[in-house]
Amino acid sequence: MAENVYKVIELVGTSTESWERAAAAAVEKAGRSLRDLRVAEVVKLDMTIEDGGVAQFRAKVNVSFKYEA
């Protein structure tokens, strides 16, 4: 059985709709330039506020992908 190594990077996705959409945006964008994405872990949720209301939902996501050297 082959041994594999995975790299983990931290991303922050944003959305005006929801935290779920913010997390999905981070993964979808990463998927355009990284190959073999494996796991995404939401590690923090927050939001920006403007004029007393929610301006953006933000999701900090750790994404792992197969490391090829």
UniProtKB/TrEMBL annotation:
SUPFAM superfamilies: Dodecin-like (SSF89807). It comes from the Bacteria. It holds the Pfam family Dodecin. InterPro entries: Dodecin, Dodecin-like, Dodecin-like_sf. This is Dodecin domain-containing protein.
